[in-house]
């Protein structure tokens, strides 16, 4: 790793992207949000493989469980971003599967994404995503649209370093006033 790369936020850390899209998983549609998310995380220095594309519903839960439970703790991604499965359709169950695996939730992050999304579309509030932590992994659900993903990145990118240092407990909180 070069000295320049060692200064990147994600240096030495893994990330993963899960895309919940039945049509993309079947090969009937292109995954349009996975490449955006993977490029963003790689640009921040995270070792990020190509997106995992699964059908909506139970396969999302299986993919999350594989990364957060079945993978040895030392090898787990520090950041997991999902895209899709956050709407109101019967098989949009990404938030439910995510919440089952989290130890602590951070609803303010989702609220901030809603606020950002509302700047361009009223449908932003229909996203039911959750965000939170399991162990040393931060997990967040982004909407399945390119616009929703771009809004999510805008919000989370500014907070990612603080999220990471908090989850890893490497921040100096200083004196409590």
TrEMBL record:
Keywords: Molybdenum cofactor biosynthesis
Pathway connected to this protein: Cofactor biosynthesis; molybdopterin biosynthesis
Annotated ranges, domain MoaB/Mog: 16-163
Record has Nuclease as a keyword: no
InterPro entries: MoaB/Mog-like_dom_sf, MoaB/Mog_dom, MPT_Adenylyltrnsfr/MoaC-Rel
Entry annotated with the keyword NAD: no
The name this protein goes by in its record: MoaB/Mog domain-containing protein
